[in-house]
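Journal club side-thread
Mid-discussion, someone asked how the predicted structure for our own chain would compare to the paper's figures. Pasting it here so we can look after the session.
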Amino acid sequence: MARAFIGSMECRVTVDKDLGGNWAVAVIVPSAAPLIVKLQGNDKEKATKGALEILQKVGKIDRFEV
């Protein structure tokens, strides 16, 4: 199971199949709105990693583990 970190706070990551070939990757932040990225693709693991890389590059999360 993937995990994301904001500072030292660990956040749960959920991955759900959306419409068609889309994946909705959500970082569940305690006491805040979830961070959601939607990606198209066939591979759940690649979509998860890609979404977390995007969130890290834009500064929403500090690091992640897949």
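Post-session note: The radius of gyration is 11 Å.
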